[in-house]
Amino acid sequence: NIDTYVSGFDIKACDFNHLDLVFLDACKTAYAKTIQGKSYSLAEAFRMAGAKNIIAYLEPIEDDIATIFAKYFYTNLFLGMNIHDSFYEAKNALSEYIPSPNIILWE
Which range among 1-15, 27-41, 42-56, 93-107 shows the weakest confidence by mean pLDDT? Predict the structure, then answer.
């Protein structure tokens, strides 16, 4: 049994300056929650810990859409694209699967 979990407080206390990318491929990982009077998301905790690039979802996302996005993103990285270009190419590829990928907040 696992009686504990890793929280944003645990993450922000780490040194993740060596991480070029954190991909939080789950719903609302960019959504800020207030805990003990402080408000930040898992994505923000990784940023505070030094991660250079973070991909996270602000809203719920369907599993199949998240999987498609991740597949395109990592394929682009594997083929030599940088993180930024891989992200935007994967976002644009979603237009084949959903009518308007711009309904999702992208940063």
Answer: 93-107
Buried b (16+ CB within 10 A) or exposed e, 34-57: eeeeeebbbbbbbbebebeebbbb
pTM over 0.70: yes
Give the torsion sign (CA, 73, 19, 56, 3): positive
Q: Confidence band (pLDDT; 50, 70, 90) for 97?
A: confident
Q: What is the DSSP string of 10-67?
A: HHHTS--TT-S-EEE-STTTT--EEETTEEE-HHHHHHHTT-S-EEE-SS---HHHHH
Handedness of CA 6, 19, 77, 98 (dihedral sign): positive
Q: Can you read off the two tokens belonging to residue 9? A: 């407080």
Say if CB 83 and CB 21 are below 8 A apart: yes
C-alpha triplet 32, 66, 22: angle, nearest 5°: 55
Pairing of strands 33-35, 38-40: antiparallel
